[in-house]
Amino acid sequence: EASDAHDELTDGFHLVIDALKLNGITTIYGVPGIPITDLGRMAQAAGIRVISFRHEQNAGNAAAIAGYLTKQPGVCLTVSAPGFLNGLTALANATTNCFPMILISGSSEREIVDLQQGDYEEMDQLAIAKPLCKAAFRVLHAADIGIGLARAIRAAVSGRPGGVYLDLPAKLFSQVMKADAGAKSLVRVIDAAPAQIPAPSAVKRALDVLKSAKRPLIILGKGAAYAQADDSIRTLVEKSGVPFLPMSMAKGLLPDTHPQCAGAARSTVLKDADVVMLIGARLNWLLSHGKGKSWGEAPKKFIQIDIEPKEMDSNVEIAAPVVGDIGSCVAALLESMGSNWPAAPADWVGTVNAKREENIAKMAPRLMNNKSPMDYHGALGALRSIIKERPDAILVNEGANTLDLARGVIDMYKPRKRLDVGTWGVMGIGMGFAIGAAIETGKPVLAVEGDSAFGFSGMEVETICRYNLPVCVVIFNNDGIYRGTDVNPTGGPDVATTVFVKGSRYDKMMEAFGGTGVNATTPDELKRAVNAAMDSGKPTLINAVIDPAAGSESGRIGNLNPQSVLKKK
Ligand code: OXT
Ligand code: ADP
Ligand code: MG
């Protein structure tokens, strides 16, 4: 029976699974259904961890953050048309954030789709995905599955990382071929993200510019955190003595409490620096495009380290572009700096430190209040001390006020521990990121969520309970988007814009699935409940009751709301 013809055949299902395993992909995030239900079952049987979600966008976000945390593409698996579209938002978001991810979707039959004859879940998925991700491929023959996956992996992780779409029509899975030919068709991707070494002349130019600075600044972005060159980045910062400003997800790459951290002197350093070295950070809206009021009047010179050559001069002139991977670039800079690099100008360092201490001192008393209902600072003061005591925990954060104030208040101590709304400022990453982070790292996760933000992915609390993940969700419940105090301008009882059901008890949602729910009305209660959750590792949701009047419109980016000179009617 061992030589049964059956034993010598393989099929599309098994080739996909074998190709994933051959390339070290051990986890799939997705939602099952036609035509990929059996693929998930067989993958699990073959030892792949299959995490099944309630909505594909959340599965996609989990895959995306897995990619960010591991430098391996996170894989999301979806059904045709609607499932694919749900996952596509996460794929586009991953691409925008430079996270490596592969969205694998089943699709309907080409012959029917292309003649638009109305197949089950008909959609030309490849065409739709293409403009929204870094690369998109379709495999029609089982013998090409190995090459298809190899191309997807390389496209996701090499150069600037991003999202890749892989289209697998239903018929592919049941195609059979000889098992030995199938095995030979698979490709193990060697050196998927090759080092990209910067030119020595570019390194020299960058150091010449840095040396000429009177008021130098280093800005660390999430590309620097992604690169996992933590030790050499720290050495570069310390050897240069230059103040550094971490972008949101780069917080903790060096501790926020590091003596050179200028996070609490942001306005000052942006305005007054004369040379700015960007490491894995783009001059996009989050940095006011490198110009305008927040950058002050004095002329600036930029040094930019990035793997993407086209990023240079995207917003302003870059005096010293250094193109390559951050690990190689920083190593080359360190080597050329030699052993007697001059200290950063003391008067500048002193000015930055004074501003930082002033801002920290100003904030300190606000974090100690024990008001009820809580304000943001009181509640965040409690959470800040929890992360200080548990620096290995991963912090997920979304909302408007809940995001912007937590970013400033909660110090981070280790790299890649802060995961948030990223480049798009997108709501809905919360539960997907929390689940992906818990699965990939095994570390406890604290998700600090605006009540609106949570609503975008809230059903995944069931997923958290089902897999018994060490996730503690804290909902800053201020009865709405930004604030819970809007009224209906016509006088009616329904508020169209930003107010939710008042006094909602989100904690009951967690209890519905067997997790722990807590209603917290003071910072002390909040702290106790979070500590208990982190100690137990049990799925927990804490409804933190926040004063509905405490927030401000759009948090710290209210200036982006369009304003008309005409009076509001
Ligand atoms: O130097 P100065 O003096 O300026 O001071 C700065 C720092 O130096 C200082 N600082 C400190 N002081 C003391 N100690 C410490 N440790 C310290 N650290 C810093 O503090 C200030 C501020 O520092 P910061 O924060 O670093 O600097 P700043 O100026 O804020 O930086 C500028 C930015 C742009 C870099 C920063 O603001 C930033 O990163 N912003 C990101 C904003 C963002 O992405 N927001 C999310 C989107 S908002 C909106 O779009 C929302 N929607 C619409 C929507 C979205 N987004 N998505 C989808 C799919 N659909 C719809 C919705 C629905 S938000 C939202 C829901 C909101 O409601 P929720 O209920 O969820 O939330 P609540 O608001 O809580 O109700
Ligand atoms: P932030 O939002 O934190 O400012 P961005 O997402 O704007 O960060 O920028 C990240 C940048 O890092 C992107 O331009 C991307 O090309 C770059 N990048 C990502 N990974 C690497 C790497 N390994 N080496 C060099 N640059 C990288
Ligand atoms: Mg809110």
UniProtKB/TrEMBL annotation:
- Provide the reaction this enzyme catalyses: oxalyl-CoA + H(+) = formyl-CoA + CO2
| Alphabetic keyword roster | Decarboxylase, Lyase, Magnesium, Metal-binding, Nucleotide-binding, Thiamine pyrophosphate
State which pathway it belongs to.
Metabolic intermediate degradation; oxalate degradation; CO(2) and formate from oxalate: step 2/2
What region holds the Thiamine pyrophosphate enzyme central domain?
203-333
Say which enzyme class the record assigns: lyase
What stretch or stretches form a coiled coil here? Answer: none
The cofactor named in the record is: thiamine diphosphate
Thiamine pyrophosphate enzyme N-terminal TPP-binding domain boundaries: 12-128
Please name the GO terms of the biological process aspect recorded for this protein, alphabetically: fatty acid alpha-oxidation; oxalate catabolic process
| NCBIfam families named in the record | oxalate_oxc, PRK09259.1
The record's note on quaternary structure and interaction partners says:
Homotetramer; dimer of dimers.
Its protein name is: Oxalyl-CoA decarboxylase
Species this protein is from? Bradyrhizobium lablabi
